[in-house]
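Example 4.3 (complexes with small molecules)
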Amino acid sequence: MKNFIKVVLSGLLLFSAYSCSKQEEFTESIFVDEPELTPDIKTYKFDKWLEDNYLIPYNLDFRYKLPEIDSDIDYNLVPTRLDKSMDMAILIKYLWFDVYGKIVSEDFLKTNGPRIIKLIGSPAYNPSLGTMILGTAEGGIEVTLYRCNELSSTNVDMMNEYYFKTMHHEFAHILQQQKTPPKEFDNYSAGYYDPTGWQNRTASEAASIGCVSPYASSQPREDFVEVIAVYIVKSDAQWQALLDLASKPGVNASGQTVANNLPMRGDDIIKAKLEICRKWLAEAWGVDLDAMHKEVQERQKQIDDAINQGLSEINAIN
Ligand SMILES: [Zn+2]
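Answer. The structure with zinc ion bound is encoded below.
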């Protein structure tokens, strides 16, 4: 069963919704109808921490309580447990917001970041396709992360695969929705994108056609953000292992070699794509991708400390 459950990250393009909000200077919160936060609420300490760390600095509503009206009714979804919500909120700040704050600028995510982050406890399965959705970015203002009840802070690779890669993937969609990446990117694996059959590809097959993951081989716009997200979260050794895999012929799930007619080897394609992403992030956004990668790698070594510090901040709230 596990082989049939592949990962889908989707970015819904709703350009108009973003352009409206971007015009406005947000001096006042757009979430004026939220109920007032008072100490008699059971989750007061955490909610206050969210207010101090997301709402006030980033005008961002961090939604973990999953009101029914606010979830996708096409799926059976469950809310995220409180302890997992706390860990996620702390780690999203530590591995995403604080990284941009340090590497790019304090204002970067205040201007370009999402206005809503939503946590869902369960995955959203697509049984007919054998896939599951791990994240969505809508209209440049909302990022949803699924499967949050499975969070385990002891397994960095698992967290990267299911949450942090998803987070950077979705945020790269938000940036991509505003400034079009170079069209040249789409040429490298042209003819081999497969929007409906990508989930049947192995990592080896995808790498051999110059894609950093099977999902990256679904379509160029997904490929583009996957390069950025995978490069940020993978260690140097893991990235090198991916390039090594991509330098060899692709092997499918049945163990057969799958040939392709691309003029370049998979590893050279991935390097060329990374260079395009690196240049676009630097020139269009002033983001140093290598500095981001380095900072995230350092932070990933201190995840437990970050969680403990965040939890003591929450506990210290009166
Ligand atoms: Zn996507």
